[in-house]
Amino acid sequence: MSHDAPTLDEAVRRLLQEAWHLSGEDGHAAAQLDRLYGRLQEPLHIAVVGPRRSGKSTVVNGLIGDQVAPLPLGDGHDVVTWYTDGAQPHVIAWTADGAARELATTRTTRGLRLDPRTTRSSGITDLKVAWPARSLRHLTLVDTPGADPADDGHRAASEPAVAEADAILYASPEIRATDLHLLHNAQHGAVATATPVNTVIVLTHADQVGGGRIDALLTARQLARRHQRDPAVTATCSGVVAYGGLVALAGRTLSDADFTAVAAIAAAPRDAQDACLMSADRFAGEDCPLPVDADVRRRLLHRFGIHGVRLATTLARTGCATRTELAAELVRRSGLAELREVVTGCFVERRTVLKARTALAGLDRLADRMPGQDGVHLRARIEQLLATAHDFRELRLLAAMRSGQVAFTAEAGAEAQRLLGGNGTDAAVRLGADHELSGGELWDLTADALRRWQQHAEDPRLGLPERRAAAAVVRSCEGMLVGLGR
């Protein structure tokens, strides 16, 4: 591997410059190229999409670490909302004619709220929310209006944001055939076909599985793992993660008053607890015999959900003796850590290749409108880059392994996935090694992996797809050796 070979980012920038020269005096094309080039400088754009009431806002809130979504307008409808990092919270509204203005907001116990008098019938199409959050330093979250597959109006409102997103989090309480069909249809165009779209399905409402039993989150995790072994699911996404949004947010924002109320419920006689926690209606009812006011119980129910109240009460009764302990255990059980790990491993650590993919998709659309041989030439250059860039080859191979098109033994398959960056692109993660190892130790481990996969690539007992896949793993190992140096 040559030290002088351009990186993927450099190759894409060169192709944008080439397209600029081909566009000539076309002002519209020049504006599109300016926007594509600008996107390369911006944080990763992750669109959060899904049906209405699918829990998209709990995904946004969990990743941000605060209750800021949703932001309905004065007439009650939602618009595309962009969450970015900012020193101070503020909201900018955009209208269809490109005008922008800052909106007054109020912070409530239910999150950030807009003044309905300033947004009703205002023609607002997009909101941009600046919020001080460490998690937003490397990404922008795009919360899209919830829609049913047949709802063309809402789909039209969110399609541009989804089409131009670098990655997608698809939120849904369950994986249905309509969800898979929608995700499959999103993978159209030469770039999407050559570089499988990076989508992660988030099983929201995981705390409601089985009627919200105490083991609901555990059951939801098992369900997510089963989905990840389903070829119909793995063909459309990079992973499936179960997430209890209310439990996660309850843990992140647990107050002393909340803990006091939960502890009082946990100290009540078990028969009273069991009777009142059978349903949300019983728990919130005026005749509930628990030693906590009805208003406090309804507040807990709104913030925790009935499963969250059951879980928090059980945890408080069986060992979480302080607010800090209870908050930490709620967050741990919610699946928030797994969700963040998936977003980091699948998206943030691959932001260079994902942003390059977005730029190439934009160039592909531009090539369709270029006259004569200019469009043909640009499309050929795009296809050449897609075919030769190893970053894209890794994505294609990971997708092929997930869908069963390439099949190694369980041990070899797990190692191949790691070395290809399926668990993260850091060298130590690819090698399954301790982050404390020195560069020399990582180099030795990489060299061992390289020799092992060179043998796989030449093994006549393996099928042709597996030998080709092994050769790609060899290429990844060679890239790591160059990066580690010696």
Walkthrough of the structure:
The protein is an alpha/beta fold and 486 residues long. Among the domains are: 88 residues, no CATH class; 81 residues. 56% of the residues lie in helices and 12% in strands. The chain contains 23 helices and 11 strands. A hairpin with a 2-residue loop joins strand 5 and strand 6. Helix 2 packs antiparallel against helix 17, helix 17 runs antiparallel to helix 18 and helix 22 packs antiparallel against helix 23. The radius of gyration is 25 Å and the shape is globular. The model has no long low-confidence stretch (mean pLDDT 87).
Comma- or semicolon-separated keywords:
486 residues; alpha/beta; nine-stranded mixed beta sheet; two-stranded antiparallel sheet; 23 helices; 11 strands; Dynamin family protein; P-loop_NTPase
Compact description:
This protein has 486 residues and is of the alpha/beta class. The chain has helices at residues 8-23, 27-41, 56-64, 116-119, 152-163, 177-186, 190-194, 216-228, 231-234, 245-252, 256-267, 270-276, 280-284, 294-317, 323-334, 336-347, 351-369, 372-388, 390-402, 410-419, 427-431, 439-457, 464-484, and strands spanning 44-49, 80-85, 90-95, 100-103, 105-108, 111-114, 124-131, 139-143, 167-172, 199-203, 239-242.
Strand order of the largest sheet: 4-3-7-2-8-1-9-10-11
The helix content is 55-70%
Amino- and carboxy-terminal Cα gap? 15 Å
Helix-strand makeup class: alpha/beta
Q: Which band does the percent of strand residues land in?
A: 5-15%
Q: Tell me the number of helical segments per DSSP (H or I, 4 or more residues long).
A: 23
On the 0 to 100 scale, the average pLDDT is 87
Low-confidence stretches: none
Which descriptor suits the 3D outline?
Answer: globular
Counting DSSP E segments of at least 2 residues, the number of strands comes to 11
Radius of gyration: 25 Å
Give the biggest beta sheet. Answer: 9 strands, mixed
